[in-house]
Write a structure and sequence with these properties.
five-stranded mixed β-sheet, 14% helix
Length: 242
């Protein structure tokens, strides 16, 4: 991950992205715990979670979420995240559900960025709250980003990249939400993508004006089927962009 103005002491550090774990009734949570245990072996310096922590149906999922996050992967320097649409409960409007998730993550040393930024030893990470939720106010954080610093933005839904909110931001945007479509026929586009812009499926996408989007394929799922779209935890090595 080449980043403009990256401090020299951060060159070679590891940033891990985990997205869309969807704790709930759809699959055995031990799968997530085992995945976290394997991810810890990479000893990441930074860990970012890009939303949809819970597939909320009732409060049972919130109790299970606490148990799963007892095993969460944490970065040696810092761990942050943003909320996804499912973290806002039914119809994406249950603010109490979102606040409970935020409080639980804070107990696990994971700071949720809700239209705000944080400085992790010289790496500025900004987080935009979910596009479909009740607290989408990117104007509270994006204008404050200084292009002379090393910046990364977390944004659950990649459709936000097409919104007129970015100003002169240049750098990486890390998203999830799509699960890579979960099913990807060879040589054909993924048929199930919950985004308006269907080019936003998975992986690295170069955007205009110096922005780079990376869409994580998700660790969890809503439907217990994947074809040609493996679940993913992403490990980036930080580099200084020339």
């Amino acid at each position: 991950m080449p980043i403009k103005n990256l401090p020299k002491h951060l060159v070679g550090k590891k940033l891990m992205q985990i997205s869309d774990i969807h704790v709930g009734k759809r699959f055995d949570p031990n799968y997530l715990i085992e995945s976290f245990q394997k991810a810890k072996e990479y000893q990441p310096d930074f860990v970012v979670y890009t939303g949809d922590f819970v597939h909320y149906e009732d409060t049972d999922q919130l109790d299970l979420f606490k148990e799963v996050m007892d095993h969460a992967v944490l970065g040696k320097t810092g761990t942050v995240g943003v909320l996804g649409n499912h973290d806002y409960g039914k119809d994406w409007i249950e603010v109490d559900v979102a606040n409970t998730i935020v409080d639980t993550l804070a107990e696990k040393d994971i700071k949720v960025l809700r239209n705000e930024k944080t400085d992790l030893n010289g790496l500025i990470i900004a987080g935009i709250d979910d596009f479909w939720g009740t607290n989408f106010y990117p104007e509270k954080v994006l204008p404050s980003l200084d292009n002379s610093k090393a910046n990364v933005v977390l944004c659950h839904n990649p459709d936000v990249c097409d919104e007129d909110v970015w100003g002169d931001f240049q750098g990486w945007i890390l998203s999830g939400h799509t699960h890579g479509g979960q099913v990807k026929p060879p040589f054909l586009p993924a048929p199930m993508l919950p985004v308006k812009n269907k080019k936003y499926s998975a992986g690295k996408i170069d955007l205009d004006n110096g922005k780079t989007l990376y869409i994580n394929r998700a660790l969890g799922h809503l439907w217990q089927i994947r074809f040609n779209v493996r679940p993913e935890i992403t490990v980036f090595t930080l580099e200084r962009e020339a």
